[in-house]
Automatic annotation (TrEMBL):
Annotated Solute-binding protein family 3/N-terminal domain residues: 35-265
InterPro entries: Bact_solute-bind_prot3 (IPR051455), Solute-binding_3/MltF_N (IPR001638)
UniProt signal peptide: 1-23
Organism: Ramlibacter agri
Keywords: Signal, Transport
Protein name from the UniProt record: Amino acid ABC transporter substrate-binding protein
Transport in keyword set: yes
Keyword Endoplasmic reticulum: no
Family, per entry: Belongs to the bacterial solute-binding protein 3 family.
Domain of life according to the entry: Bacteria
Matches recorded under Gene3D superfamilies: Periplasmic binding protein-like II
A GO cellular-component term linked to this record: extracellular region
GO biological-process terms attached to the record: amino acid transport
Amino acid sequence: MSPALLRAVLACALVCTCLPLAAQDVLKRIAARQQVNLGYAENAAPFSFRTAGGPSGYAVELCVAVVERLKRELGVQQLPVRFVPVDQDSVARLVAANSVDLLCAGVSDTPARRVTMAFSSPIFFSSVKLLVRSEDGPQSLQALKGRTVALLGRTTAEAAVNAINKQQGLGLQVAPVVSPEAALSQLRLHQADAWARDEVLLLGALARESDARKFTLLPDTLSTETIALAMPQDAQLQRVANEALAELARSGRLEAIYERWFVQPNPAAAAGLKFPLSPQLKAEFARAR
């Protein structure tokens, strides 16, 4: 084999191995195994979290509605659900490898992630913000110059902090953490001066803490993001997911589900998050109909 031909063969092999497996027919795979695998995050309230009774949350409830729509699509009466815990580091890998059929969590829809996965129509619009200690924490982004910010790795909050750090020359020091609990612990112990994450996820984390009043959200918005249900790159599954969300929107149930998880008292927030439906999301729900 000539060197040129060998290079061409190797290049082709590399492209083939790098392509996501998600081009397969996901609906046929679900029908063949007679089970749908739903990925969820165990600590991303109110989108998804673990309770004594199993996975729960806003995104989980929406995924269950998609499963009901899948039953009609496949013409089956029963479709067992297997919930798969997914951490932030394995989101892209598990979806691209078809280990989960639908990811029920607060996943940001970004151009980078669209390379390996597909997304439903928007279910939420989020802002990345900073949580600080109320007693002595800085009261603005500029006051954080040279300070330490806790971050969960492989999140869009990480990209937002890095971008604004570079743009404004803040000299922020990043402290990687493995969980929301670790981030709060670093704040309590003064090992970090702020924690960057989606605003509603910060509120969800605080809702379960007895000392929530010791922390304050800064008004600065680092970035805004579209949140959606993530899935393998399969047009039919994406269509079914969007049809399920459209049915919920037409019936009024979509807004009711939102109210249950973002406004009213619920298992993730005993007093409720009091985070009303934004005009942007209300308009998106109307378009989904």
